[in-house]
Amino acid sequence: MSPYETLPFPSKGTNTDTLPVSLEDYGITSNGFLPEEPPLERLPHPYYAPWESVVESLATSLAEHTLRHRVDHLPILSTEHLSTKPEWQRACVVLGFLAHAYIWGGETAAEILPPSITLPLLTVSSHLGIPPVATYACVNLWNFRTTATTLTHLDALQAQHTFTGTQDESWFYMVSVAMEAQGAYIIPVMLHALSQAAAKPSQKQHLITVANALNELTACITKLGVLLARMDEKCNPHVFYHRIRPFLAGSKNMAAAGLPRGVFYDQTGSGAGAGAGEWRQLRGGSNGQSSLIQFLDVVLGVEHAAQGNSNPDAVGELLAVGEEEEKEGGGLSEEQVAVREAFQTATRALAEFRNMHLQMVARYIIIPSRQANGTRGMNLATASSRLNGSSSTEKGQAAPASPGELTGTGGTALLPFLKQSRDETFQAGQLKVR
User: Fold this and answer.
1) Domain boundaries, the chain
2) What Gene3D superfamilies has UniProt attached to this entry (predicted)?
């Protein structure tokens, strides 16, 4: 489908509205950023049976300390038998889990990723356009099964694969899946409203459409918060911090965890000769990679300083027009006031959602980080939470942690980053118009 074609807009009471973009071009389905159908639970071609055999018993192999031995003896498989998009996504899930299990599944971190994982993972990640690590898409979006007809039914969701084999880990991933599904309907609603705002910002009916959409957005964010609050039901903070979180860490800023140079992606066997490959420092999977949350930021015009300034959004432009009209003495119309109030309410709702996330970080990371682990061997969770700081910051990236400061799985200062994101969301609702 051409990106210039329009898709039917599923609004209530009408089938005539359309969207001026192709959602398909942005990987958006009726389930939002989740796939249209549940992910494959196994690659169909028997050629990939060796991968499937190892990932099927991943938690057991990690518990028995045999995972690295099994991966070291895997054959180097090509990607020539992958054809459909679900197959490529399934391969990414399998290889992403095996890669992180190999790196973090021992007494110390493994600095070298063997070619049996490196070579196919590099090809798969390149094909999908994502980093060769266990991303948010890998452990959440493409890693679930359900017994219900709707993906918003959290209790019917289950992770296909986990590192620990615990209900806690599955629940942690599935809360995110349910939230992605819950937020799916708001994507076309807001795109339609933004197109209305950009087309004729002063037209009464368009203003009503925008105000209604923003009110619906507030309701949607509230529903997301209800799902997030259910994390405590089946995910124990101590289990999350000490057993699950270590496997989600990347290789960037992980010197304290045993990866001063990151991970060497060994490409021996690629035809480039023995010892071929390169050191990579990549950020680990994080809920911050959720396209849904980033979409909410975009439609509300929330600007995060670490990402640079963005262009004003259509709603912001509409509000700016209203400000100009008010200055000229005409005052704001009833519809313009409704848009302003709905916009401010929506930004407050998103900021409060981020505040809820901060409170959860306190329960699941800060408090457990101060408690004894109770397990033998190197505590990679603690090591990867307190990293050596750096005097420089990459352009467009959040600042690295200072010595002794808690960090996220991506290696950035955790609390300062989250607080800044929350505060910037509150600021977006203050109507900084020209």
Assistant:
1) 46-179+250-283, 186-232+288-380+402-428
2) 1.20.58.480
